[in-house]
Amino acid sequence: MSDLLNHAHAATDTMDPGSVSQTSGMDLTRYAEAPGRRIRATNVFPYLSIHLVCIGLLWVGWSWAAVIACVALFFGRMFIITAFYHRYFSHRTFKTSRTIQFIAAFIGTTTAQRGPLWWAAHHRNHHRHSDHPPDVHSPGLWGLFWSHMGWFLCDDGIKTDWKQVPDWAKVPELVWLERWHLLGPLTLALGSFAAGSLLASLAPSLGTSGWQMFVWCFGVSTTLLYHGTFTINSLAHTIGRRRFATSDDSRNSFILSILTLGEGWHNNHHHYPGTVRQGFYWWEIDPTYYGLRAMQACGLVWGLRPVPAKVYEDAHAHAPRVREESIRLRRLRREARRAMNARRRTGEGATS
User: Fold this and answer.
1) Is 16 a member of any domain?
2) How many domains in the chain?
3) Which of 41, 62, 131, 325 is most exposed, with minimal Cβ within 10 Å?
């Protein structure tokens, strides 16, 4: 499956810019007006409710125990998202046992980013159409807000596209977890409260409580994890530098790489998504890759796919094309803005 993704991405790298410009206006208008792009309150409420939990900080205060647990849950679950939801379930860049596969998938559901098959399906679709219709979270086409979080609050975004994950749809325990993905957030919420209550009873000197741990470990940690993950959809296609002349607007960013444990080397990844590494050079910090190497040493994962030598040759050959692709993408973004403005004018005319 990862080979198919690489071939699909290579096809977009060789697209004729003229053919894109001829059809993009029609496609952009069609996707901008699609009924499935409507954001519904029923989709917003679960997402918003986790943010609202953070208001509880005004009442529960803080303790070192709660803050340390919050940070540990942020980075621990970020590793699961980047290593397993992304590099394993979406791109299959390494192998592991079904036991580790399921454990990682369940921990991933505690992030409240739905199940691994929903995540992988949308991500595979993103790579096939990156920054071109029907890429649902392209900031250049639809704006920062939509690419950051609007896309998964609409009807189309909340569905699992099973056609994109035929490999994983054959694994019964993953299909079960996909349908019961809310068990993960519920487990974390109840577990945080229980752990805080137990610590309050056994170690009152820590100054924590059940409600404090619930707010920090479930509310604050999950909210921060949300927006840390979402920056790759929005900011990693907006800020940073481009090494490869990909057909999208992906960028490399050191700051985003620190925040997301290596996911910020996004232009690298879009050029060659079939490797477990996203930092292609030693100075490109990629903590997720280091963590997977440690797991490999323990026999928990294996078959980590390396960066091919040709990729390093491409890095030199692509330099002259980066500017050309940037100009073409700016043209596509202008067409996207015109399509969105036309949609707004149509809506205003219908209501007047």
Assistant:
1) no
2) 1
3) 41
